[in-house]
Design brief:
10 helices; Rossmann fold; single chain; 307 residues; alpha/beta; 7 strands
Length: 307
């Protein structure tokens, strides 16, 4: 039996939250009903929440993303990890620029939806591991445009074990996976549920460019951030716990003025810098509609209730 307490994401993802997991875990409500993550992405937070929950806890995990390849890949790992691993191995063994571009082109002929889930999952993981700076990008038509990045694709026995561990965890928990816009799952959120939101980040940060092209069309800057904040307002009114991550920027300071929040200084590199990928320091923020005790330095047991 795999140790599920340290399960981690099984593919790289720009904007992943592994460096914030300790803060997120420390500020997760101690008691809540179901868990929702409508911007699944790499899934680091969802995996951490599932792994830290006992198997006997009656809880459903609603995980969704607008990017269909993300959800298809998670479903394939849940259902047939051996076939997914075989697909990635096969791609990695043939990896070079022309082969990478040929696999990337699968979505151009309209046949991608007719590929098996394990074939699509293998392609998704392979392209992420072989593309430039692990950046999954799509154009307005939904075609993958990620650029060739490396002469070799890292896919070791350790990566295979990670896929198997995620498979075990997904089958040990009650998990609902859905491809949909973030607001579509609102009808399933109840009072005392916990919702974690990691939307594409605010774009008004000097010296950094936006990266929101991981799904066709990207997102619409400040207007999108306002939609997310309004969504959280509705969750708060309904009695749910909501925790959101974003950059420290003029727009997020304005939108979340008066909210409980905590900062962490991090180095940004993938997908953020305007100077060709050189790391830049910046501030990541967590915003919550409940009290963040770690931010305030309290050590007593947390008693959380929506504001």
């Amino acid at each position: 039996m795999t140790d599920l307490s340290s399960v981690k994401p099984f593919y790289p993802w720009v904007g992943g939250k592994r460096r914030l997991l300790d803060l997120i875990q420390a500020n997760t409500p101690t008691e809540f009903l179901n868990f929702h993550e409508p911007f699944l992405g790499g899934g680091a937070v969802a995996l951490q929440v599932m792994a830290s929950t006992g198997v006997d806890t009656p809880r459903t995990y609603y995980l969704s993303d607008l990017n269909a390849e993300v959800i298809v890949t998670w479903e394939a790992v849940r259902d047939d990890p051996e076939a997914v691993i075989s697909e990635v191995r096969g791609h990695a063994a043939r990896h070079e620029r022309r082969y990478f571009n040929a696999v990337r082109q699968w979505d151009r002929n309209g046949l991608l939806p007719f590929r098996s889930p394990t074939e699509r999952a293998g392609r998704f993981i392979y392209l992420l591991r072989g593309c430039y700076r692990a950046m999954w990008e799509e154009d307005d038509e939904g075609f993958c445009t990620s650029a060739f990045g490396f002469d070799s694709v890292p896919f070791s026995a350790a990566h295979e074990r990670t896929i198997w561990a995620v498979h075990e965890l997904l089958n040990a928990r009650d998990v609902v996976l859905t491809t949909q816009p973030f607001k579509a799952g609102e009808e399933f959120i109840r009072a005392a549920d916990f919702v974690y939101l990691d939307p594409p980040y605010a774009t008004d940060v000097e010296g950094h460019v936006a990266f929101d092209a991981y799904v066709a069309g990207g997102t619409d800057g400040k207007q999108f951030q306002t939609l997310v904040r309004d969504y959280i307002d509705r969750l708060t009114f309904g009695g749910a716990y909501a925790l959101a991550s974003n950059r420290d920027s003029r727009s997020t300071r304005f939108l979340y003025d008066g909210w409980n929040q905590i900062d962490r200084q991090l180095m940004w590199s993938l997908g953020h810098s305007t100077s060709g990928g050189n790391p830049h320091s910046g501030t990541e923020k967590l915003f919550a509609n409940y009290l963040l005790y770690v931010a305030l330095g309290y050590e007593q047991e947390r008693k959380l209730s929506p504001l």
